[in-house]
Structure formats: C-alpha cells, structure tokens
Design a protein that fits this description.
Blueprint: E1 10-17, E2 20-29, E3 37-42, H1 51-55, E4 59-65, H2 68-71, E5 77-80, E6 93-96, E7 103-106, E8 113-116, H3 118-123, H4 132-142, H5 164-168
Antiparallel strand pairs: 1-2, 1-5, 2-3, 3-4, 6-7, 7-8
C-alpha cells in the first residue's frame, strides 16, 4: 500500500463506537497529494473484514475534503481497493461569472464547464472543500450519534441529474 493516504482507492474506517464503523474510500483526487480529494462513505456499519461488501453498498456521503483525519489516524486506513464509485456520479457544481445573470456548471474536477440555464444553476451547489470533521460528524449523526445539521445535506450524493456524468457525459 502506498504511504500516500489520499491516493485514490484508499479504504478507511470511520469508527463510531465499540465494534461499529463506517467504511469510506478516496474516490478521486484533484491533482497532487497536497490537493483536495473526494471521499465516498458507504451505507451501513461494517467490520474490517467486510470491506468488499461495504464498497458494494450505495454511497450515503460524498465530499471534497482534505487528509487531516487520515493523517491523525482518526480514520484508520484499511487498505486499497479498486475505486467503488464511478467518477461520473460525483457532483457537478455552480460557478458564478462576472455577469450576475449567468452562471456556469462545472464538473467535479473543475476542468470542464459550460453555461448553466437559470433553473439548473439554482439547483447546483457551489464547489466547496469541507473539513473532514464535518464528514465525520455527518456520518455520526446518520447513525444516531449526534444531531443532524442542515450543513450536512450538501454531503449527500447529488440528485441523478446533478452529477458530472448526467451533465457532461461519462468521459
């Protein structure tokens, strides 16, 4: 396994309490190892032995984040697997332009963009890097350990028509 904790494919545990944990995976990185990366957290609570089963579940959280909780071993690395989430399922985002009457829709990487009609622009989130602790707190709240904060809503997987794949195709 690579010493690069944010390498795509890295699988990590998100401990909840004694014997219960979620499973997450680094699914895409924006460039070099010091750049933000996408994590997907998969449905259910799993044992270390259930990695492949966990990665077969649908994602319940998808976030562009940084590596603090991996580096500090709050999220222990369990290994590396093929990426379980197709990048085309990552969110597309809104990016404003100099013209207040127009906006762009950009893919998950920020590399592709095109004009967004007003209805679409109103439904898209802005491209935001979130602290990994927010991802952790959202996971905990989903599993009864803490209150759900409306800020966590932006971490839920995008609606099918707001994904990179649905707007830009799967290339």
């Amino acid at each position: 396994m690579s010493s690069d904790l944010s390498a795509p494919g890295t699988v990590f545990a998100m401990p909840l309490d004694e014997g219960r944990q979620g499973i997450g995976q680094v699914v895409h990185r924006l460039g070099d190892s010091d750049r933000p990366f996408y994590v997907a957290v998969f449905d259910g609570l799993h044992d270390d032995d259930d990695i492949d089963e966990a990665l077969a579940q649908p994602p319940v959280l998808i976030a562009l984040t940084m590596d603090a909780l991996l580096n500090h071993k709050t999220w222990p690395v369990l290994g590396c697997r093929d990426i379980a989430l197709d990048r085309s399922m990552l969110p597309a985002y809104r990016e404003d332009t100099a013209d207040p009457q127009s906006a762009l829709v950009v893919d998950h990487s920020g590399e592709r963009g095109k004009p967004a009609d007003p209805e679409l622009a109103d439904r898209l989130q802005y491209w935001t890097v979130v602290a990994p602790i927010r991802v952790d707190k959202a996971f905990r709240a989903m599993n009864g350990d803490g209150e759900w904060d409306e800020l966590y809503d932006e971490l839920r997987p995008p609606e099918p028509d707001l994904t990179t794949g649905s707007i830009f195709g799967s290339s």
